[in-house]
Amino acid sequence: MPKVLISDKMDPKAAEIFRARGVEVDEIIGLSKEELAEIIGKYDGLAVRSSTKLTPKILESATNLKVVGRAGIGVDNIDIPAASAKGVVVMNTPFGNSITTAEHAIAMMFALARQLPEADASTQAGKWEKSKFMGVELTHKTLGLIGAGNIGSIVADRAHGLKMKVIAYDPFLTEERAVELGIEKVTLDELFERSDFLTLHTPLTDQTRGIVSREALAKTKKGVRIINCARGGLIDEEALKDALESGHVAGAALDVFAEEPAKENALFGTPGLISTPHLGASTSEAQVNVAIQVAEQMADFLLDGGVTNALNMPSLTAEEAPKLKPYMALAKKLGSLVGQLAHDAVKGISIEVEGAAAELNQKPITGAVLAGFMGAYSDSVNMVNAPYLAKERGLDVREIRHEREGVYHTLIRVAVMTDEGEKSVAGTLFGEDAPRLVELFGIKIEADLDGDMLYVVNEDAPGFIGRIGTTLGAAGVNIGNFHLGRRDGGGDAVLLLSVDQHVDEPILLEVCNLEGVKTVKTLSF
Ligand SMILES: NC(=O)c1ccc[n+]([C@@H]2O[C@H](COP(=O)([O-])OP(=O)(O)OC[C@H]3O[C@@H](n4cnc5c(N)ncnc54)[C@H](O)[C@@H]3O)[C@@H](O)[C@H]2O)c1
Ligand SMILES: O=C(O)CC[C@@H](O)C(=O)O
């Protein structure tokens, strides 16, 4: 009988389901990391919320662990690469707490508009300060969403009921989906300039970290009110404190903090701040939903090998898996490349397989492309839910199969349709299993897509490679590999550099300022 440990406070339904399905379960809450490392070796499954940190060190001791289930959305507390390397499947429950979290954001918005916590404290202190707490109405105010995925779109729906005007910045949101949601799609700057209330609903990624920065706050309307029920690192907390103190920001309601548990924080005590201890998902309904889902999914996997909502594993049969594995690795890298490089709203994506790839089940290849593509925008996407999410968001997904064999024995081409037209990338397998990019936006280029990379488009003129090499060298960035491509007949050249470390913003700016540079972007695989 498989054995599961529930190591965070979870609705009793989870344990009930495990037992009913024939899975042995222990519930031990509040273990230190040393205690967890000591006992984890006994378990086949680990069910967590956000308190348990599944680090590489703990995984080292997890000699029997096969699956980790996160009763919730964010998996920041689980080291997924380390779990994958160890062959441990990581699952989450991407939709179970969305309504609850959206409702928390709306509650925070009301609390800010009418200063409810301060008014409550003052009234209970016997002060009856009726004239001190002048509020604002929500009706006809503009609500700016950063991120309009599952939770953001529910917030938009509720805000419409409150007669608010909803605008959103989300690079993944198509015009069609925005129209369907009744949201006006705007640029990030416009969102900062126009919002009376601003609410965040994105995962924490390299692109979203510090998205509400000091510079961004300076662009906001005086008197803006800010709500964050997503992830702490999205806001520069020091800058927010200054903006609250100066009165530029009228109020901020935070459920999440850069460091959690936030027992101390520089923002605490700042006038206009409302805070809750990461309560977004804390309703009995949501906790029942996520507990049931996580227990069912983990029991399915441990008892029957069924895979649902896995973040690091495709749904596959035992025979297909080994053959498909290198093709899926290639597909995911190509999807991730276009996801990271597509700046405009993508309306559709086509996945074309040719040669040996055309003889295989195309669904997992498509799933891998979509997981790679959408993984550039959201951390809760996986092979299983990526096609569903793509459909829900109006992304037109096309699969094309050619039996023919071209220059390469096998080829996968991924094309995205944007307002600016179609852009495509293509890759093959070198040998049996080495994924290799062979074409990028119409330019022939051969590259491994691996680790940290730099994508540069420049004028095809002499001396450029020397200049970029010198600039990166002077900044202490070691180049592992250079891949070059140029458009036939002249014009732009493309450079893909493998670098030994993530290239920070100031260095990126230096590269950007080099003569002849048209575009620079960091990539990560
Ligand atoms: N406070 C809580 O207890 C609580 C509960 C549930 C979820 N969350 C967090 O809320 C966040 C949103 O969850 P969700 O289920 O809506 O996720 P989701 O993946 O459905 O939506 C995220 C959206 O963010 C968009 N996005 C990605 N990068 C962006 C960028 N650079 N700029 C603007 N938008 C960008 C994506 O396109 C997507 O539409 C996650 O961070 C999740 O962990 C918090
Ligand atoms: O489990 C919780 O309480 C928080 C969950 C939330 O942050 C999530 O990402 O699902």
TrEMBL record:
The reaction(s) catalysed by this protein are: (2R)-3-phosphoglycerate + NAD(+) = 3-phosphooxypyruvate + NADH + H(+); (R)-2-hydroxyglutarate + NAD(+) = 2-oxoglutarate + NADH + H(+)
MF (Gene Ontology): NAD binding; phosphoglycerate dehydrogenase activity
In terms of NCBIfam families, this protein maps to:
PGDH
Q: Where is the D-isomer specific 2-hydroxyacid dehydrogenase catalytic domain?
A: 4-312
Give the protein family: Belongs to the D-isomer specific 2-hydroxyacid dehydrogenase family.
What general EC class does the enzyme of this chain belong to?
A: oxidoreductase
| GO BP, sorted A to Z | L-serine biosynthetic process
What does the record give as its pathway? Amino-acid biosynthesis; L-serine biosynthesis; L-serine from 3-phospho-D-glycerate: step 1/3
Question: Which InterPro entries does the annotation name?
Answer: ACT-like_dom_sf, ACT_dom, ASB_dom_sf, D-isomer_2_OHA_DH_cat_dom, D-isomer_DH_CS, D-isomer_DH_NAD-bd, NAD(P)-bd_dom_sf, PGDH
PANTHER family in the record: FORMATE DEHYDROGENASE 1, HYDROXYPYRUVATE REDUCTASE
**What task does this protein carry out?**
Catalyzes the reversible oxidation of 3-phospho-D-glycerate to 3-phosphonooxypyruvate, the first step of the phosphorylated L-serine biosynthesis pathway. Also catalyzes the reversible oxidation of 2-hydroxyglutarate to 2-oxoglutarate.
All copies of the D-3-phosphoglycerate dehydrogenase ASB domain together span: 323-440
Ranges for domain ACT come to 454-515
The UniProt keywords, alphabetically, are: Amino-acid biosynthesis, NAD, Oxidoreductase, Serine biosynthesis
- Every D-isomer specific 2-hydroxyacid dehydrogenase NAD-binding domain range: 106-280
Top-level taxon: Bacteria
Name of the protein in its database record = D-3-phosphoglycerate dehydrogenase
- EC number(s) recorded for this UniProt protein: 1.1.1.95
